[in-house]
Amino acid sequence: MYRRDVRDTSHDGLLADMATADTAVQSASAPDDGRIAYALNREDQTDLWLRADGHDARLTSEGVLAMRRGRGDTQWFAWGPDGDRLAFVDAAGTLSTVDTETGTVEELTHHDDPDLGLAWGEHGVAAVTDAVSRAALVLVDPDTGSQQVLADDDHLYGDPRWGKDGLYAVRAPHRSLFDFEAELVRFPIEDGDVANEPEVLFTQDAVRVQTPRPHPDGDGVAFVHDASGFDGIHYADAESVAEAAEKRDSVETTVVHAAEETEVGAPAWHSDGDRLAFTATRNGRSHVGVADVDGDAKRLSEGDEKHTGPFWRDGALHTIRGDPTTPPQVWNAEVGSAVVATGAVGFDDRLAEPTEFTFRSGGTEIHTVVYPPVGGFPEEADSVPVLVHPHGGPTAFDDFGWDYRSQYFAALGYAVAMPNYRGSDGYGRAHRMANDGDWGGGDLDDVIDAADATAEAFPAVDADRAGVFGGSGGGLMTVNALGNADAFDAGAAFYGVYDYETFVDDTDDIGWQLMKRELGDLSTDLENYREASPIRSVPDIEDPVLVLHGEEDTRVPLSQSEQLCDELEKHGKRHELQTYEEEPHGFSQRENVLDAYTRVADLFAKYLQIDPDDGSSRPHRPDEE
């Protein structure tokens, strides 16, 4: 399936540089001075670093759990109240602390994949853990490791934050998950202790609450909800919170900041308590700004950027910022410069500047981010093949941040179209929920239509030479698109779900809960599971399929790709399976990323007719004949 004598291999070095570039994940300022702790991904491992007096020191060396969660910006590590230690969860799932002076790490207690946040206050470290039950909330003594269970019930808890009057968090019913419905709760501090029974402060049917941020002086709480159809920041003062807790009713709030057709979120209080930082996401761009409590707001960024995790340091607003040619880095938004620069040297001249367009699919506007070939689209019509790259999730979205995979294919001369299909986040509640009960329906149409729509928007694009590739939900979309349309000439599917009926037995709780919500109960709605499974469309696939999967994937097990390939083999379809040891759900090890994406590039070069004919190709390896 691979021929490296028909592809320009000189860009493989660019792929290696981008795949190994340092990327900042999250950052937080110390409570007592201007030090910054930040999580940095380097060479396939994320660790905590400390910036103090203009110098950087690595605090951990065995890896920590930290990731960008999108606009919610869950806290993955937390400063202690005295500023001498940080709490974090290591790569093995152990809740630990690290001394910022000596680097000494102390293990507290083992938690299985705490994945929805932690917070350190005077009463201890609040952490979300699966060790008790799925997404339970516990309180851990930072000195002894002793544990108190705060919430172990029929809800999923997330994003705990300490206020002077108690511990705030969000929670969602198990079946709803956090993308559909969630409410604001508080565990009050009574007689010096944290109560075990939470008070529900804000709840509405089919409304999602996110990011509770208690006022620094104890005067209530700011939080985000989407009752208007788009996320906005709302504030309730202490009197309103107390009244709501007493009456057991939703708290009365005022709007701090909301904007038309814009998702406003990630509030962060200034220490004076009179203003909040925010992010504003629209059409794939996430900007940062400041809003007074009375509603006056201004943005501090513009252009093709993605800002996450705003925080204050010495009165100045900071974020994690990335753009299409710059990996995410710690950024001072007040002056517009990096505080901790990442490995972006020389990328600007070698990478593409993405653009955008919208098209109508089934009456729905689909915003699409497009990477042209490096240097822009040529004038010659039908001269550029197109790759459609659906994101995973499906509750995610493609943006104008750092995307080295799309940049690699742009360097190879492709146009890469990334449609934010029905079910994508970042475009309001209605769009996010538009694929509910319709998996493989309108959302699949959006992906299939994207190739022709890109050619209509950009005359240089040739829709008759089109490929499709994606991971997880994007891998599922890839196989579904190949089996339900003739829009593509080849596809590469990474770690996707292909048979929902068997996936039920192999996935984790999140995957199972999501399927129950979308497809119903297996005992009564089995046909829904079978009908929605991409493996059903294998007999109709006419084009080659490259299937790639990590052998340590617990979210989507390798058996899904093995089943798909068995079915492809049964029907005599051209395919190949490539697996990678020690890779979980998503590839991150340098050698595996290089192998996987150069294989995909070979596939598309062969079937979409990209022959450099300039001496830059290389013979294919003997084991690939």
TrEMBL record:
Keywords: Aminopeptidase, Hydrolase, Protease, Serine protease. Signal peptide: none annotated. GO terms for molecular function: aminopeptidase activity; serine-type endopeptidase activity. Residues 404-609 form the Peptidase S9 prolyl oligopeptidase catalytic domain. The keyword Protease applies. One of its GO terms (biological process) is proteolysis. Pfam families: PD40, Peptidase_S9. The keyword Hydrolase applies. This is Dipeptidyl aminopeptidase/acylaminoacyl peptidase. It comes from Halolamina salifodinae. The lineage of its organism: Archaea, Methanobacteriati, Methanobacteriota, Stenosarchaea group, Halobacteria.
